[in-house]
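Appendix B. One record, verbatim.
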Amino acid sequence: MSRASASRLAWLAGLWAVAWVGCTTEGPPVRPAPVGSARVVYVLPRNLPADTLVRVSSTATSAGVSYRTELQGSGPVRQGWLRELPVGRYDIRAGAFDALGTSRFETQEVSVELAPQGTALIVLGVKDTSAQAEEESAWLQAVIASAGAVLPGDTVSLRAVASDPTSQDALSYEWQAQAGTFDDASAEAPVWKAPTEEGSWTVSLVVRDSRGTATSLSFPVEVSGVRALSGNGSVMLNRWPQLGELSAQPQDEVVVGAPVTVAASGKDADGDALTYQWTAECEGSLVDGSSATALFTPSAVPSEATCNNCQLRVRIQDQHGGSTSYGLGLCVRERRPPTVLATSATEVNAIPGEVLRFSVSAVDPAGGPLTFTWSASTGLVDAPVLAGGTSEVAWTSLSCIPAGGMPTLRATVTNLAGLSVDVPFTVNWNGPTCGHAPCVAELARDLVTFRDNCTTDTPVFIPDGFTLQGEGHTLSAVDPAGGSFVGAILRNRGTTAHVRGLKLEARGLVKSGACDVGEDRLRGILLLGASGSVVDSEVSGIHRNQAVDGNPEGTPRGCQEGHAIEVRNPAAAERRAVEVLRNRVSGHQKVGIVIIGDVDATVVDNEVRGEGPVSHIARNGVQLSNGATGRVAGNDISGHSYTGNDLGTGILVAGGAYYGLELCRDITIEGNTLTDNDIGIYLSQAEADGSGPATSTRLRVVDNVLSKGTVTNGFPFQAAISDLGGGNLISSNVITGTGYDPETQPGATFDVDVVAGDAAQVMFLTPTRTVAAGACSGRVLVQSQDVKGNLVKPTLATFTLTASGEAAAGLDFYATPDCSGPVLSTVELSTPQAETAFYFKAPSQPGAVTLTVSNGSLTSSQEQTVRAP
């Protein structure tokens, strides 16, 4: 007899015994109500921290009566039993709670029919109740088996409960088992026939939606002769990996032989580690095909010529058998070089310093990006500017080109396949050829930067609007073979130019014959008709020697050229503004810094060395003429001294009809140090007859320090300050040295020499002041002047000081800034600048007070204010 038959007989015998014992003569036997049971399995996410949940329970409800059981376990699987419940239909649900009693996971309600004496298997999938959770995979809510344990060869009714979280997509089902057969393995509710062999057999289900997302569930069904459900066996719910991103870089169009980087990023709701595997459905090679990022290089164009003719597929797999495949379409095209659409040039004729612009527009037949590279046979090429499929570049040559051919530029356009096309341009050069290698420099937008020392025998031009950055390198001018250097060594091309940090020199220049005139005159740096600046540079040796037979170096020439820095703007032209700051100038032939014409100049903190006295030319340190204006301040100017019948000057202001020039007006000359110049500051402006300007030119010469220790000029005439009489302010300058002392050579050496009329007024040179009661005032400066405002010593040089007004009582005058020492009642205006300074101590009472300076015939007053302390 088989074990199954014996079991059945034992069961019948037991039933008979129960019936017999319970049989009485009072009525039919009482039969117990039929009952059923179920094993409930609750599957949580595998990546859930172990201490997240404290309680998991399941509830079965039928006809308003609920039965609850606590589910036990410590991992992602929690299980329990619903035992001996009345048979019938039950609604089953479960929930998981954290330490605060908050529901973290729950199941949808599913219906189960409990059969008499049967033990169903209910596997429940969870749904995260947190607001942040996003379900993207098909949600497998439950799998219900009519029995978790069956006899060999018996059948089990299975039913899947699933839904799609993002849409109402139709779902597909795929059932599998280690053994046994399904009546329909793709049905939502198939029947599984158990194998004849006993054992615990794994049944699995994969649910997919139309987007390819999937969830799988595997659980055991026990096949034995006693149909007993032990509750053992592994249950696993696995949400299969999904695609986060899929991309091709630099783009999804690629030519044969050009590599493309393909990248996939997967995401897994269970937190599983993912692996990747790439395959290609067209000819080509894959590198790193088993990583998230691979490199694919097509080797042939697929037969289908349209886009997406090459499919790459990536399979993303987790460690529990879940995998999903995704496709990426590439457009593979033939290798073809770029197509040039257009070329342009602003101009093809060039002179030194002129900037030409060239552009090339092109397209890649494969639609990929292009690279543009530019080169030139000579000259400077700017960094190209790329806009869309057009590349533009600037080109210039600063001075000359090598002999032997015209400059050529070449644009090379290259695509990702490495195929390129060349676009040549030829420049018609209308400038000189080089006797030396061109300067090594870089062109970058509005900047020219020297990268080495440079020798030139032709002028170097700064392009319009550019700054030449010397970086401390030296630009040296030499004579060309068989000739002489002509013109300015460095000059502007256009209306704006700047020079920074350059060393510039003339080296061994010689010339015989007549002096050069006009544009051919030698200059170091020339800004002609331009605004701009010359800053932090050094200019030296800007002179020529006279070529003499047997003496190749010659002797110094006296030609009126050799200006180190020259700024020139024609009169009546658009006014220009120029800064000349912190430069060092030496060895110039005629003028260190010269400003000529309609220019507003700022000449500040320069060092100008004349290296005199000399006998061949009268040099000037700084010169402003022919209508120039501006400010000359903080400069250190020395050594402009001539031993012939002329004068060297430290600072010269020249203009007026006498010279055929415009008058200069409104120039401030202050805070300069002038040493050993024949004339320190010479205001040489005159009408046609040689007299001073008819109207005041309003020049201010203040707070300069002037000195000369010896008499060197043979004219003879030396002066610290000389003015032909322009009604200018000359005040508070410090003058020392025997060379400027009138007593050294009376009539030939002067401290201040101003052509002026008789003293006609005494003027307060300082503004009105407000002084606290009891305090010492600031300096009060008064000067004796003629009717035009020229300083002049008065015949009666002693002036009395008086005060009047409501605050005059108790006011005293002093010679010292702290109002100490003896009280003054008179001052002397017999000083070289016909001026004197004094201070007053305000009385204790506030109010207005009028100060008066008078010598009886000349009187002037100024009101001051005393305020309460």
